[in-house]
Amino acid sequence: MKPSISVELQMKQRIFLSQSMRLGLKILHMPLLELKNHINKEVEQNPLLEWKEELLHEEKNLKCKQFFAASHREEVEAIPKKESIYEKLVQQINEVFSSPEEKRIAHLILRDIDEKGMRASSIEEIAKSSLAEKQLVEKVIKEMLLFEPLGIGSKNLQEFFLLQLKEQNKELSFAYRIVQDFFLELIHAQFSKIAKGLKVSQEELLIILQKDLSSLKFSPLPSFSLETSSMVNPDFFLQKVENRWVFQYHSETPLALHSRYLHLIATSKEDEKKQMEIFFKRAVELMRGLQVRKITLKKIAFYLLKKQIAFFEGRGALIPLTISKMAQELHLHPSTCTRAVAYKYVSCPQGILALRSFFTSSIQTNTGKSISQQHALQVLKNLVQQEDKKHPFSDKDLSLLMNKADIPCARRTVVKYRKELSIQTASKRRRIYTQIH
Fold it and tell me: pTM for this structure?
């Protein structure tokens, strides 16, 4: 059969995101500080955008009233606002990196850092997602590791330990060699293997561990620390006022189109008119994106309030909830909800909490009740904390105790939960206790 060339027409349905939709999703995904920086940059670059002076005056007057009202209270103290760690990191990125590409990669890495300050993705994954060269990503990470706090963006605990020892000029010490060459043995408390490898006695090894390793931090940002609340600014507030729950957005962005420049669009020259139309389109898209962000967060706020009312009122724990279920009930796309929840915080009677913390998987108890996985993890953690340290519970014992607490938990599930909580096996817990005491 002779080869031939033919033309065939096909019709396919495909969805393409417009520039306006892309910007809206970007604004929805941004953390609060990054959003403020983005708005300030747009106002500086776009002559058609201006701050509403009358709203700014009203805000100043309100602050004055609040100040004078507070001055009549007893023991009023002027406490300066503490700069958040996120703000410090953004400032260091702008100071250290000169090229826009390096800054872009640094901001992507910053988003990838978890609550402990560790990097979630590998260098290869970051390079792939950012469409950047691997060498450039490595260079940016190397610089960020020296930021304040030290070790921010470390890939694991070993790298963070080595970085701290290097900062203390202990690269030639036994401690540095232990972390570099015997890290697995160290975390599994296999002290005899380490002593044999270093050719020292166990007594000498314990002195080294006590002197050089006991003071090392386990994460750049200790999780559940007292600084957690001050590190972030809430995106919105949920407060109960006179038996009614009130939603308040963090700040109404007082943006407006500059009236003096608007009429110039029609009277300008052709080249100037085209440029002004571009500015006009950008301004409208920004204001629309900000409005969509506010509406979406308000929908999510009242949805969470409805579903987790017992938690907000202090009458119970969080119930199991997933982002996909919320997206379905709010008639939103799951990816939109994921973007809306990421890096967002709510201020409520329980404190400043991440929106993501309200979404937990479900576990069916022996009596048919649904509880969150976080609740099961907390029960296991409490059991280990209360155990006899000389005779710790085995995984089988913990499985039986969890079942007695109405939480179905097989031995393999206990192993999975232990690893999530970074809890060692019973034999290693016993060995660590005997070594210390």
Answer: 0.52
